Amino acid sequence: MSAEDVLVVSGGxxxxxxxxxxxxxxxxxxxxxxxxxxxxxSTLSNVPRIRDVEIVRNLLELHGxxxxxxxxxxxxxxxxxRVERAAVADIEVHAGASRIPILLCGPLLHRxxxxxIPDLGGCRIGDRPINFHLDALRQFGxxxxxxxxxxxxxxxxxxxxxxxxxPYPSVGTTEQVLLTAVRASGATELLNAAVEPExxxxxxxxxxMGAIINxxxxxxxxxxGVSRLSGYVHDALPDRMEAASWAxxxxxxxxxxxxxxxxxxxLMTFLNVFRRxxxxxxxxxxxxxxxHPGSKLASIALETDVHPGFMTDWQQPLVVALTQSTGLSxxxxxVYENRLGFxxxxxxxxxxxxxxxxxxxxxxxRFGRGNFVHSAxxxxxxxxHGADLTVPDLRGGFSYMIAALAASGRxxxxxxxxxxxxxxxxxxxxxxxxxxxxx
Length: 439
Ligand SMILES: CC(=O)N[C@H]1[C@@H](OP(=O)(O)OP(=O)(O)OC[C@H]2O[C@@H](n3ccc(=O)[nH]c3=O)[C@H](O)[C@@H]2O)O[C@H](CO)[C@@H](O)[C@@H]1O
Ligand SMILES: C=C(OP(=O)(O)O)C(=O)O
Known about the structure:
By secondary structure, the chain is of the alpha/beta class. The chain has two domains: 3-21 and 238-438, Enolpyruvate transferase domain (UDP-n-acetylglucosamine1-carboxyvinyl-transferase, Chain), CATH 3.65.10; 28-235, UDP-n-acetylglucosamine1-carboxyvinyl-transferase, Chain, CATH 3.65.10. 28% of the residues lie in helices and 25% in strands. It has helices at residues 28-34, 51-62, 105-112, 131-140, 171-181, 197-209, 240-252, 264-277, 312-322, 343-348, 394-406, 426-432, and strands at 6-11, 16-20, 42-45, 66-69, 76-79, 114-118, 143-147, 150-154, 163-165, 187-191, 212-215, 221-224, 233-235, 256-260, 280-284, 287-291, 297-298, 301-303, 325-332, 352-356, 375-380, 388-390, 409-414, 436-438. Strands 17, 18, 19, 20 and 21 form a five-stranded mixed sheet that branches. A four-stranded mixed sheet has the order 22-23-1-24, covered by helices on one side. Helix 3 (105-112) packs parallel to helix 5 (171-181) and helix 7 packs parallel to helix 9. The chain is globular and about 65 Å long. Residues 26, 99, 126-133, 168, 170-173, 194, 311-313, 335-336 line the site of uridine-diphosphate-N-acetylglucosamine (UD1). The site of uridine-diphosphate-N-acetylglucosamine has 21 residues, from helix 4, helix 5 and helix 9.
């Protein structure tokens, strides 16, 4: 860990001011991958300067996509016309960096008839298997060989439309199916699909390219394959995970933060919970202002779920705010089996949190019968004090930062480099909100 990976936080002051969120971490890299399917260049704007975008930019360049900055400072132009001629021998260097490489399967199979996919990275919040992805790709006609350093795929007979029913509405697998089906021969029907706003935005990107995609009200997506797609011009939807993180930071520190570009439609479920806890917000054309009203915060019972439920990526920052609520709050994490480990560090800061392997919520989830610690009871309000913290993953780590800002005294937060995966300019944003942080 380098020195610049460590931040010393003097907490106890409310965060006050304004920050801007740009395009979503969970859409932008995927829209970049979609550009590989086009016959001509695509232009993507509202692109944040985050590590996951850099990783995918480097990966696409290795595959022969020419990526250059666009006319505006936040846009990228992606030209895939040289992909066929690219050498892919260096792809292994990207192993372990993010979840995105798996989404290149369909686009590379369509263009080259083969694809090499390195081992995936991303947050360690569960096992994160890719069995749904591989089952779906095989149904399209792909042959998948597992190699020590990754996956080798080919499509000797090409890729053909198919009927896929997902055991669980997986975001990544839904995107995998979309990116493969749009240029497969014939029609594809995807049942039990995920319908997160980032997926809808990816569908918008693909439709601009010439794809025909229907979304039914029952989580069924129907795709009619087409033989060619063009480039696109698209403005990425704003990052609702980052917006919710700053909202929770405002609430936990007793502050008042305007999140420029936050969109009500993407945050509707979060806003309901924020209000039930006692947080105030007001929606304007340019963003959403979130603030602590000065009165007591309420405890709540909450389950994370696939969209339109309460998103799992919002859970960790919200738990910090719940340490300041009066009474007992209950959180049941139903999307990942191992996303509550971060709570033990919050206990070191003075929070009262007990974690359980039972399902503490009305929905019996996939993890109830295993020994997975996936429910928590938070008792509050607890005064928090400074501690020495090491970031475990993106959202858990940002929660530590929020807790350190809410705590009285000094905390040392190690491993903040991970934040660069999903929080653009986080040091500058913290400073602009009056946080006392130093490297
Ligand atoms: C880069 C990106 O967009 N990441 C998001 C994406 O992750 P990601 O796309 O990896 O998440 P999924 O929706 O696929 O995973 C949901 C659940 O399905 C399981 N599963 C998934 C695939 C599979 O082949 N087999 C399987 O069992 C996972 O272990 C997990 O328990 O959606 C998650 C759920 O909203 C978010 O937390 C992540 O921020
Ligand atoms: C889990 C997350 O990301 P990833 O899927 O990229 O690991 C996240 O953004 O909180």
